[in-house]
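STRUCTURE:
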């Protein structure tokens, strides 16, 4: 049972207000250069809606992620090596720039230099790629806040099947939620398996998925192989790029830029330990509804002395093991099971999980609270939510509504529990136990979900560069892609960042 450590993130959708601060700060730090104008490592989508790129969840069209063959073995949905070799110069499953959007600017020079005339001059949109005039038809937030409209919501892939009838787009029945997205940094990443040149790789020490820019040959099979469409092609450099989970910041013990700047404080970052021998079996379970349970079964209890002993024997630093014991990701996803993965049916074992939203219908839940009623029926209003449980399940639990119901019931129980404590002066322990949580854990869950401070939400151990060779000339800056210029003269390093100073010293000692 080889044990590995994996960085993960949980986002509380109850708190997202769709302000896009995370998207803007991420773009300013990571994708503010030529060739990445259309690239959003972090974006916030309005649901129901088509998402970015357009209809990215339609795997019948894009064929991303994994599937099972006739023998029950994992295979890439887009095909193996032979199929890729035959289509290497024409990838039929690759999104075009129109599926993302052709980035544009405006002809501001015309506003400045236009002569005096009867009519106000207009700054027309121009492509940032070709420089030609554009007729704007789509953009990264084209359907922002328009989830109630039939034009946009009707094309949401999650509405197919039985949900078509239940979700009606009349004004009275409309609902809306926000879905912030980054790369999932999957345990079983299909983008890595799809790369013909081996440029995509998963870091052994923390599980972050990255692209080796020197090795990348621009085949773009990572783009089509990723079911979340979070790998992009830089048309200027001819290389693939993706969310890096802000690994220079993570190595310094700091949260990602999107998490640091999140207005709603909805992001939680932490470490989980998992059994690497169980990855294939967990991703290969025949029934899609069992994928969530299989992935949860991979995660190991950091409070187990045997797990800690084995993890240390497998080279995981002691402070990482201690961080796993305090991990908000483990608490929310495994211990309390109020966080769920995005589309587990893709079989990539994603590591960005979501707490489903409850806020829009909290009044229904509270009206159903009655101490004289059987605790099992206290939260019957969960199935009356304006956001249908089945819709959330289509995104977060491969269509199985029970994990979503459990998460929503526990969130509702937490609020009702704290309400009795505040209003009545005595918390009703029966409300907690009715959903399988002890009052002590309910207090901890409330602190994490509702009022968690910085140290509660981000439990990020620092990197241990002394554990292996590190080339200080390839380290990035703490906040982005500004490569650090170093001049080593007389044994001194001109650098103000302590972690990098430490790495250079360690490298010098190793020589």
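SEQUENCE:
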């Amino acid at each position: 049972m080889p044990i590995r450590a994996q960085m993960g993130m949980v986002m509380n959708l109850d708190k997202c207000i769709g302000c896009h601060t995370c998207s803007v700060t991420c773009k300013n730090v990571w994708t503010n250069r030529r060739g990445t104008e259309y690239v959003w490592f972090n974006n916030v989508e309005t649901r129901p809606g088509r998402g970015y790129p357009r209809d990215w969840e339609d795997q019948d069209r894009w064929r991303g992620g994994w599937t099972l063959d006739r023998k029950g073995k994992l295979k890439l949905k887009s095909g193996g090596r032979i199929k890729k070799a035959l289509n290497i110069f024409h990838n039929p499953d690759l999104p075009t720039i129109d599926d993302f959007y052709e980035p544009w600017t405006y002809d501001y020079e015309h506003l400045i230099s236009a002569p005096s005339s009867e009519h106000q001059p207009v700054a027309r949109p121009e492509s940032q790629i070709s420089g030609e005039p554009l007729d704007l038809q789509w953009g990264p937030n084209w359907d922002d806040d328009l989830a109630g409209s039939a034009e946009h919501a009707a094309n949401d892939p999650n509405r197919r099947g039985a949900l078509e009838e239940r979700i009606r787009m009349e004004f009275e029945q409309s609902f809306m939620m926000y879905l912030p997205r980054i790369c999932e940094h999957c345990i079983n990443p299909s983008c890595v398996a799809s790369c013909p040149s081996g440029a995509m790789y998963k870091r052994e020490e923390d599980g972050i998925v990255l692209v080796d820019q020197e090795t990348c040959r621009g085949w773009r099979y990572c783009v089509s192989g990723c079911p979340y469409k979070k790998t992009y092609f830089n048309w200027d450099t001819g290389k693939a790029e993706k969310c890096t989970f802000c690994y220079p910041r993570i190595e310094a013990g700091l949260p990602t830029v999107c998490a640091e700047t999140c207005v709603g404080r909805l992001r939680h970052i932490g470490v989980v330990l998992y059994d690497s021998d169980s990855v294939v079996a967990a991703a290969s379970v025949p029934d899609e509804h069992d994928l969530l349970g299989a992935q949860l079964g991979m995660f190991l209890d950091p409070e187990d002395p045997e797990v800690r002993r084995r993890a240390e024997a497998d080279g995981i630093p002691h402070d990482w093991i201690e961080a796993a014991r305090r991990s908000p990701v483990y608490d929310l996803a495994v211990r309390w099971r109020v966080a769920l993965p995005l589309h587990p049916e893709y079989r990539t074992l994603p590591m960005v999980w979501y707490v489903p939203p409850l806020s829009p219908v909290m009044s229904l839940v509270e009206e159903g609270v009655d101490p004289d009623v059987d605790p099992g029926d206290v939260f019957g209003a969960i199935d009356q939510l304006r956001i249908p449980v089945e819709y959330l399940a289509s995104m977060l639990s491969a269509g199985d509504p029970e994990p979503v119901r459990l998460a929503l019931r526990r969130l509702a129980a937490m609020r009702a529990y704290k309400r009795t404590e505040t209003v009545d002066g005595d918390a009703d322990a029966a409300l907690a136990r009715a959903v399988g949580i002890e009052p002590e854990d309910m207090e901890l869950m409330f602190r994490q979900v509702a009022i968690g401070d910085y140290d509660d939400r981000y439990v990020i151990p620092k990197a241990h560069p002394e554990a292996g060779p590190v080339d200080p000339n390839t380290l990035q800056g703490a906040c982005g892609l500004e490569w650090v210029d170093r001049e080593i003269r007389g044994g001194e390093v001109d650098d103000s960042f302590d972690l990098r100073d430490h790495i250079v010293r360690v490298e010098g000692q190793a020589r």
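REMARK: The CA atoms of residues 306 and 488 lie 45 Å apart.
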